[in-house]
Amino acid sequence: MIRIMPILFVIALFLFVFFFIKNRSGFSTCKKCEGKGYWRGLRGEKTICDICKGEGHIPKK
Ligand SMILES: [Zn+2]
Question: How far apart are the CA of 55 and the centre of ligand 1, in A?
Fold first, then answer.
């Protein structure tokens, strides 16, 4: 019975990674700031993206 434990652990890890990737793919890269969350202004100032609010990605609709 003790041999089942590592297998269950691997399955749990696999499911965790699967749902993590699935969750990540629910977001698309912000086109305005190209995923950076901000852009540089004319004088080099950092402007936070107003579309994704600095996140760099937006939830898919
Ligand atoms: Zn953005």
Answer: 7
**Tens digits of residue pLDDT in 27-51:** 888 888 888 999 998 899 999 999 9
Number of domains in the chain: 1
pLDDT of residue 28: 86
Q: How much distance in Å is there from the Cα of 58 to the middle of ligand 1?
A: 8
Domain extent for 44: 4-59
Instruction: Decide if pLDDT at 21 tops 80.
Output: no
- Using CA atoms of 50, 52, 55, 58 in order, give the dihedral in degrees to the nearest 10: 180
Phi, psi of 55 (to 5 degrees): -80, -35
> Tokens at residue 54, please?
């600095």
